[in-house]
Structures are given as C-alpha cells and as structure tokens.
Amino acid sequence: MTYRIDSDVFWPYGQLLDITADAVVAPSVKPPWRKPPVAFNDSLVWDLWSGKTKTAAWFVSHCETLSKREVLANRLQEFFEVDIYGNCGTLSCTRGDPHCAEMLDTDYFFYLAFENSLCDDYVTEKLFDALERTVIPVVFGGADYSRILPPHSYVDANRFMSVEGLAQYMKLVVADPDLYVSYFWWRSHYRFTYSSPFCDLCARLHDPSFGHKTQFYHDIQSWWFNSCRLQSRIRL
Description:
Layout: E1 14-18, E2 23-26, H1 43-51, E3 54-59, H2 69-76, E4 82-85, H3 98-107, E5 108-114, E6 118-119, H4 125-131, E7 136-140, E8 155-156, H5 163-175, H6 177-182, E9 190-194, H7 197-205, H8 220-225, E10 228-229
Family: Belongs to the glycosyltransferase 10 family.
EC number: 2.4.1.-
Membrane topology: Single-pass type II membrane protein
C-alpha cells in the first residue's frame, strides 16, 4: 500500500473523476483523457486573469531537498519574482487560512508544485491543492504527470531543457489570456476528489477476487528505493 501506481493497493493524495461517467480516471497507468478543445472560454477565469498581477507563488517549509527544487525556484527569480511563503521565504500565510487560498485565485498566475524528491509516481498535496484554485500548477518531480493530470492543465518543468526556456514559456502564457484560460478546459469534464485509501483497502479485503491475485516482487528493495533519482531533466 504505497503511492506507487503499481502497488497492490494504491494510495494517492487525490483523484480525478470523469464527471459524465462519475468514475475515477486518474492517477492510473493510462488514463482515458479527453482531448483539449481547439478553443475554450470561461468567463470566470477571464475575469480573474484580468486582475492577476503576480507571476508565481510557492508555499514551502523544507528548504534543502534531494530534488534541488529550491535551486529551480531561485533560478526562476532571475526572470521574474517568485513569492515564497513559509520557512524558506520572506512571506507568511497561516496554513488553513482561506485568504491564502483565495489570493492564488485573485493574485497569481502560477503555483509552484515542486516535490522534494524525484520518485516515480510521487506527488503530494501541493499539486492537488493547486487544482482547487484558479491557478496553473507548474510541476517538478519524478512522476509521469500524464498519468495524473489531464493534458494541457499544467506546466511540467522537466519538459524544458533550461530554466530560461521554462521562464520564457510562463511569461508567454501570462501575456496571452486565451492561452492562459485554455489551461482550465479540464474543469468542464473532470472534478477533483481526495482519495480514501483505507476504504479502498477495506473494499479490496472484502472482494473475493482480490484474494486470488498474486503479485511478485523479485527485489522489493530495488522496486522501492531505485524508483528515485537525483538528476532532473531540466538543467539547473
């Protein structure tokens, strides 16, 4: 029972449901994502876009990490201001304060959902918290995010060769309201929900067919510990 999608019992932080089918589609190995529309409009996002004035926010408490996410955040500040809240920055916002979440809607274009480790399938509440706000998550981690989020709903730092390339693309999105709004197309088809892993475990234990499933781990230590790496794709 782990965050790995190939676990016997999968334990994600959150899930995405297809609204029409009322069924969980992700995270999974190959989610049946709908294709983003050629054109998309949402008046609420448009209105919020016009009032946003700040490029990116980052809420963080651990300042030195294996992923070197702090290096990426610092490099981005060479191109635009990143407001850092918590132990690693100069700004503060009390956890659970509704104003902290609301200001992401009204003030910021992007939220940095940077993970502390680059491990397969590893994503934390940072990402799923962003999905509940009108802000585009910029992700940095070891997961294949296409197994977790709909296409064109996030910006993956590891899809860029350089920090400058990432920063320039973020600037492009900020300056183009049509492009910015298009990142929220998924809300018309999917909704976010928190997972209930222990309920899932209970259901599995009461499912007669689950007892007949056998899964072998020839080297479980390697399966678990070798799923992480120290080098990111984007050059820091």
